[in-house]
Amino acid sequence: MNRLISLAALLTCAAAATGCAGPDLVMANPVTSGSVPQNHVIKKHGYAENQNGLPPGSMSDEAIIEQADGSQFCTKVVLKELSAIDLTAAEIKVTSSNGKVLQPTLTAEPPTSHSYEGLVPHREQTGTHTTCKGEGDSVVCNTEPVYTTTMIRGQVDVFESRGRLCAANKGLLTNETKDLSLKISTPTARPGAWGVGHGSKSVTFRWAFQ
User: Fold this and answer.
1) Among 112, 102, 209, 96, residue whose Cα is nearest residue 165
2) Distance between CA atoms of 178 and 11, rounded to whole angstroms?
3) Would you say 116 and 159 are in contact if contact means Cβ atoms under 8 Å apart?
4) Measuring CA to CA, which residue among 99, 105, 203, 116 is closest to residue 157?
5) What are the C-alpha distances in Å from 51 to residues 48, 62, 118?
6) How far apart are CA 60 and CA 43, in angstroms?
7) CA distance 92 to 77
8) What is the DSSP string of the chain?
9) Where are the domains of the chain?
């Protein structure tokens, strides 16, 4: 049965391979129990939703372990962003407290998008600004427009990418495994900082076993 993160899990996180961020969900060890319990992890992005006037949950990332036994580990993921995501270009790592790191095989579905009525930036000229400087015996002035950006109602597209990740177990998950993490880092179609290159998205899903 799933339960809230225990104090013991928090106290031992320093020794865990997945770091001290704490698990998103605590569940029975599927190798020990012989079955995979409910383990749906949802990573909310409330700030981005509020900034863009989107409904709650519209940008949440999701992951669920579908298979975890002595032979194979498989996870289904759903990633959402304000620009297109190419999962096939992602760096994906599955790490467990056993010290094992695997690069799983990805089967990606074609990306989709959903349009919402949200908030979009609107830039308009609100005045001018004049600067003057001396050049010899004369003064040269330059007037430039001043712009203000506000958020107005408009169409906001949320892009969704789905995929299934599988890897041979090879000691990743055993009866002794305490925790496991799935990290996905991928470029997006949105321009990067200062308009250079591509933007990026990184999300980590964490499970702890009891």
Assistant:
1) 102
2) 13
3) no
4) 116
5) 5, 21, 9
6) 5
7) 11
8) --BPPPHHHHHTGGGSTT-TT--SEEE--HHHHSS-----EEE--HHHHHHTTPPTTTT-EEEEEEEESSSEEEEEEEEEESS-B-GGG-EEEEEETTS-EE--EEEEPPPEEEEEEEEEEEEEEEEEEEEEEEETTEEEEEEEEEEEEEEEEEEEEEEEEEEEEEEE-TTSS-TT--EEEEEEEEEEEEE-GGG-SEEEEEEEEEEEE-
9) 7-118+152-209
Query: In this predicted model, what pLDDT tens digit does every residue of 127-182 receive, in sequence order?
Result: 999 999 998 889 999 999 999 999 999 999 999 999 999 989 989 999 999 999 99
Amino acid present at 20: C
Q: What is the mean pLDDT of residues 70-85?
A: 93
Which two three-digit tokens encode residue 143? 């007037």
